[in-house]
Amino acid sequence: MGAHEHEHSHADWAEMSASLERRAAAYAPMTARIIEQVRAAQPEPRRIVDAGSGPGVVTRALAEAFPSAEVVAVDATQALLDLTARRAERNGLGDRVRTRLAELPAGLADVGDADVIWLGLALHHLGDQRAALAEFARHLAPGGVLVLLEGGLPARYLPRDIGIGTPGLQARLDAADAARFNEMRAALPDVKDEAEDWGALLTAAGLTHLETRTHLLDLPAPASATVRAHVADVFGRGRGGLREGLDADDAATVARLIDPDDEAGLDHRPDVFLLATQTVHAGRKRKDA
Ligand SMILES: C[S@@+](CC[C@H](N)C(=O)[O-])C[C@H]1O[C@@H](n2cnc3c(N)ncnc32)[C@H](O)[C@@H]1O
C-alpha cells in the first residue's frame, strides 16, 4: 500500500471505507494465496481474529476459506465493523462472523484465544509495534499462528513513460509516499521507533518465526474495472489528486490521469495494470506455552 493511502488520521477511516473495499477487491487473488499459506501452517483453526479488519473483505474471505472457524473482526471504527457485519450477513456467514469495536492491541481480552491472528496492514498504524506484537501473542492459543502482512515493494500501475508528463512519475510518488508514511507514524499516539525486522520482532514476542514469504499480484494490462477503480483511488481521485510533494508538472499529469473524461486518463488508457507484492511473516506460539 502506498503511503498516500496512509495520510488519513484515525478518525478518517470510515470515510476511506469505499477505497479500502476497492483495494481489497483488487487484491483478492493475492489474499486468496496468502490464506492458503495460513492453511498450510494452521489447517483447521477454530477461532480467527482479523485485527484491524477494515471493511471486512478479508474477514469474509477468511470465513469462506475456513468453514468451521469463527472469525472475529476487530477494529476501532464502528462504521467499518457495520460494513463487515452486513457483508457477512449477505454472504450467509452471519453466524460465524463476529465484530468487536476495540482499540488495538488492547481489547482482545474477552474475544477468546485465537488459532490465527491476521494482522493485515494494521500493525504499522499502532504506535508501539513491539508491545502490540507481544500483546497479540498473548491472545494466541497454544500452537496458534500470527500472520503479519507488512512490507513488500511499492506497487506499479503504469509504464515508466505514459506519453504525458515527465517519465518516472511513480518513482517520484514513491518518494513522497515514504515521507508521508514517516509523518503518519510520527503522529501516532505513544509512537516508538522500531527497526522493522519483523522476524526478530515475532521472536521477541515469544513466537517461533515460521517463515517470511512475499506474494506477487500480477494483473497485466488491460486492467479490469475493479483494478482501474483502485488505481484511481491510489492517484487520489477521491480528493482531487495527489498534491503534496509533487511539482506542478506531475500534479498536472495526475489531474489528467484521474479525470474520467480525459482519453489519457486511468478510465480509458489501455496500459493500466496492477503489479504488487505483499510480504507475509508468520510466527507460531509454542504448543506448551
Ligand atoms: C489499512 S486498513 C487495513 C484493513 C484490512 N485489514 C485490509 O487489509 O483490508 C487499517 C485498519 O486498521 C484500523 N486501525 C487503525 N488503528 C487502529 C487501532 N489503534 N485499533 C484498532 N483498529 C485500528 C483502521 O480502522 C483500519 O480499518
Automatic annotation (TrEMBL):
Enzyme kind, highest EC tier: transferase
InterPro entries named in the record: Methyltransf_12, SAM-dependent_MTases_sf
Keyword rRNA-binding tagged: no
Source domain of life: Bacteria
GO BP field: methylation
CDD domains, A to Z: AdoMet_MTases
Domain Methyltransferase type: 49-146
UniProtKB keywords: Methyltransferase, Transferase
Known EC number: 2.1.-.-
GO MF term list: methyltransferase activity
Protein name: Class I SAM-dependent methyltransferase
Organism of this sequence: Streptomyces cavernicola
